[in-house]
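Possible regression after last week's pipeline update?

I re-ran a chain I had predicted before the update to compare outputs. Posting the input and the new output here so someone can diff against the archived version. Not blocking, just want to make sure nothing changed silently.
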Amino acid sequence: MNETSGPGAVPKALRRLVSRLRQAWPVALLLVLIVALAIPAALVVAPAFMGPEQPAATPGPPSWQQVPATLSPRQGLPPLQDSAPVPLASAVTAQVEPLLKADGGGNFTGLVQDALTGQVLFDRGGSDNRIPASNMKLLTAVAALRAIGPERRFSTKVVAGPSAGQVVLTGGGDVLLRAGESAVDQVMGHAGLATLAASTVAALKQNGTAGEVTVLVDDSLFSGPALNPAWAQGDVEAGEMAPLYPLALNSARFDPAVTTGPRPQDSAVSAAEAFAVQLKTAGAAAGLTVKAGVERFTASRAADSGPPEAVAARPVVLAEVQSATVSQQVDLMLQTSDNYLAEVLGRMAAAATGQPATNDAATATVRAQLTELGIPTDTMRLADVCGLALDNQVSARQFAEVVRAITSGTDTRLRAALAGFPVAGLTGTLDTRYGDDSTSGGAGLVRAKTGTLNSVIALSGYVVDADGRLLVFSFIGNGLRPGADGNKEALDRAATALAACGCS
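New output (post-update):
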């Protein structure tokens, strides 16, 4: 019987197959292992033959980061329109009248006008003379911008002295000098004595000057008393004011960051001493030495130093630095309420109109410039131009008219003063006000010059009301209880009410 046939043939064949599989099992396992390892290896090696893998496409930036295909419409506040409704005087009065309450003794006067038409919208004793405190600086700003010009700069020069080896530091009205290098991006310190000294040394070397140099200072631009007799001695001693000279460091402060306390009592000599220090440093490499101390230059000294034809000749200018513009100085004066700078600008305005640079000429120049603008001045009393004197008398109506001339008058030179008005809650002397619930609505909207003396407080400025109408205002308190917080709040609430007024 064949082995493949018959009933027992299948079981034998099956047994032989199983036996062969058992013998081949280790080989099969090996093959499985080789295949398992070969697949990852192939994936690693394959790029070497196929080239680098192409990176996935990077998604583009979101649309708000992409360069726009077209420009968006210009955003911001729209220009004021003459068509904006003029508030009703009765409605403005109803808003402002109950807010102007004195905290303790004294009282407030005030006036609100529509800037474009001059229409009076609120009047409480607006024509009454009042002590205005630092609101006086608004009048000085107008006079300086008109008489001197917004773009004018003041020069501080070094000229050759009447004798060999002498240099004369000559004041030209810049009282914002700094001791170091000129900081041309600043108003305070725009011109620096270190820069002036370096230029002076270069000129002396070119002229063949060697040896010792003597520094003189010429402050003859200003005349008359350096201190106004209308200023209280206590205010001078407290550092509210110092003797006036046509050159000074830091607006006659020892440190520009410290705006209270004692001041230099001879700012011209102090500036000259600082210049001498810078000249000594700059001149060392050129073989120049500087005589200790400085001396004041006078006409008699010049006359004694040479023949008349030499004295009469125009002095040789060795070096010069220039101040920030008048408009920039006006803005600084208004923002910080700088008494010294205000008085200097008043005297420089007088000099610009051909008058002597005295206090009396400064007040006369302010009055004359206001009269030329058409603002009545016959009732004014001007004792100084910074507002420190208690003898000043100006009405709220006159201040409102001055603000109106600045904001919307025909003399566009006055627009340069707009940036100097402190902004409620943000800048200058209003930076810490307008923070409570009753005044926060005026923050960022009210722009006004402050004024504060012991029993006097004032606020004069402008605001755009809720309907888009430009309003000017002046509020003045006299005879007030010193230190009463409620008086500032009364002024700030009244100005805030104007900002919120949809009173048409």
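Follow-up from reviewer: compared with the archived run. The chain is about 35% helix and 15% strand. Marking as no regression found.
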